[in-house]
Amino acid sequence: MIDPAVPLAIIAVLLVALALASIRIVPQARAYNIERFGRYTRTLGPGLNFIIPGVDRVNTKFDLREQVFTSRPQPVITEDNLVVNIDTVLYYQVTDAKDAAYEIANYIQAIDQLTVTTLRNVIGSMDLERTLTSREEINTRLRGVLDETTGKWGIRVNRVEIKAIDPPPTIKEAMEKQMRADRDKRAAILHAEGERQSRILRAEGARQQAILEAQGEQQAAILRADGEAQAIERVFQAVHANNADAKLLAYKYLETLPDLAKGEGNTFWVIPGEFTEAIKNVSHAFAGDAAAGTPSTEKEDSDGPAQIAAPDPHRSSAVQAAVDAAEAAQRAVDDARSDVRRAGTPPGQRSSGE
User: Fold this and answer.
1) Is 0.70 surpassed by the pTM of this model?
2) How far is CA 37 from CA 18, 55, 102, 126, in A?
3) Residues 180, 183, 187, 193: what is their CA dihedral angle, to the nearest 10 degrees?
4) By CB distance 3.0 to 4.6 Å, which of 3, 87, 93, 162 could disulfide with 73?
């Protein structure tokens, strides 16, 4: 006889197995599509869910987090008939598990092919230079087309990035040469601009230096002229204050005459007419001073000019030196006048006159 507890145990085990089969725990950011007898009924969200065992089954499971898809480098022809290899990266997310399962058979392959065709259409309308410098524009246009098409598949394309654009080797070499030429050009322009600025600054400095030197010379000349004017004014005032007579002025005139003969190129000296008068004034002045102390020994000759008396030992040394200087000057003047007369007289007359 069968123990009645055995069927109960079997029934209990079956009930437990049936209960476990009816429970579905869905993780966070996941979605399960449930089919009942092969027909879609609902999508299970995260958490604890119950299904009918043997009737309902999980058809597809989707990850609702953002995912990354990297496509292989694809050859693309530009507007100027150059082939470039472009590698793209897509960031997409499943927003509707039902559409992703039933609207498209393989959404990954569909996104890859759609990216390639859209990329060729976009790059085909650009030349190589614009392709290399318009990545943001390419990304924006790709995203617009992919987002519009994949929306009905329950896919949202969040971002499209161009990872690499590889032109042909010959084009790379030409571009490198062009970049080197551009850098050399900019370097030459900067060097020329620096030389220009340097010359301008040097010229400006020389100009400022010349101006400052001229101003300094002007101020120095003005100060020297003012000093000379003040000196002359003081001398003039001193002469008038001390009431200098003609004798003193004649003596000072004689003192300045030797300065006229100074210099290496003074080979010809013109004796002014006032020289004789100055000598006479000095001679008379010192002769008068000497006559006041000793008896006069001068004698007047009726047929010739007055003769200066012989030196007197009783005269002072200063007076005697002045008299000797005056006599020597008188003799030099007489000799100079005789030479001038002989030089201006014709030879025939000179012999007869002599």
Assistant:
1) no
2) 18, 6, 16, 53
3) 140
4) 87
Residue 206 counted as domain residue: no
- Please report which helix (H) or strand (E) contains residue 278, including its range: helix 274-293
Residues 141-159 pLDDT 10s: 888 888 888 888 999 988 8
Q: Which amino acid is at 5?
A: A
Residues 51/24, Cβ–Cβ less than 8 Å: yes
Highest mean pLDDT among 138-147, 230-239, 292-301, 336-345 belongs to 138-147
DSSP-derived secondary structure letter, 151: G
Q: Which residues pair with 89 in a beta bridge?
A: 70, 161
Sorted by sequence, the CB contacts under 8 Å of residue 319 that are 6+ apart come out as 286, 289, 290
Co-location of 28 and 72 in the same domain: no
Predicted pLDDT at 7: 78
Strand partners, 77: 83
pLDDT > 50? residue 308: no
Cα separation, 27 vs 19, in Å, equals 19
Please say whether the beta carbons of 142 and 80 come within 8 A. no
Residue 59 resides in a domain: yes
* Domain region containing 320: 246-297+308-353
Q: Are residues 144 and 89 in the same domain?
A: yes
- Cα separation, 20 vs 50, whole angstroms: 9
pLDDT of residue 263: 59
Radius of gyration of the chain (CA): 65
The helix or strand, by DSSP H or E, that contains position 35, with its residue range, turns out to be strand 30-36
* Average pLDDT of span 204-211: 92
User: Would you give the distance in Å from CA 46 to the centre of its chain?
Assistant: 67
Q: What is the DSSP letter of 21?
A: H
Tokens 């524009």 correspond to: 137
Q: Are residues 286 and 342 in the same domain?
A: yes
Token look-up 């987002």 returns: 147
d(CA 90, CA 97): 19
Average pLDDT over residues 66-93: 87
